[in-house]
Automatic annotation (TrEMBL):
Entry annotated with the keyword Cytoplasm: yes
Superkingdom in the source lineage: Eukaryota
Protein name as annotated: Uncharacterized protein
Family: Belongs to the CFAP144 family.
Localisation: Cell projection, Cilium; Cytoplasm, Cytoskeleton
Main location: other
GO cellular component labels: ciliary base; cytoskeleton
InterPro entries per the UniProt record, alphabetical: CFAP144 (IPR029214)
Length: 101
């Protein structure tokens, strides 16, 4: 016969943690790459080996082309910075712009 314990008293026995259950929970929370040796589904195949095969050398000027700022792009940035913003009708205050008779 099993009786439920009293709610205001801590149980004496049976409250130990089951280590196999804890291991199952920890394994379930792992990423698929750490759980399995190979992808289990076709959607896992994309990105399974996400580590780059070669280290990228950013100092090699033959292979690295960072974004540069040309004279034209600098001029365009300054031009658009000083352009007045278009008047947005939704920003008008209530009663503003209405004709009074």
């Amino acid at each position: 016969e099993a009786l439920t314990p009293k709610p205001n008293v801590y149980p004496d026995e049976g409250s130990g943690q089951d280590s196999s259950f804890i291991d199952i929970i920890h394994r379930a929370n792992l990423e698929p790459e750490k759980k399995y040796r190979e992808p289990q589904t076709t959607s896992q195949e994309i990105g399974w080996f996400h580590e780059p095969l070669l280290k990228i050398d950013r100092t090699d000027k033959r292979l690295n082309f960072p974004m540069t700022r040309s004279e034209i792009s600098a001029y365009a940035e300054e031009y658009f910075r000083f352009q007045p913003k278009k008047y947005d009708k939704s920003l008008r205050q209530p009663g503003e712009g209405t004709k009074s008779k």
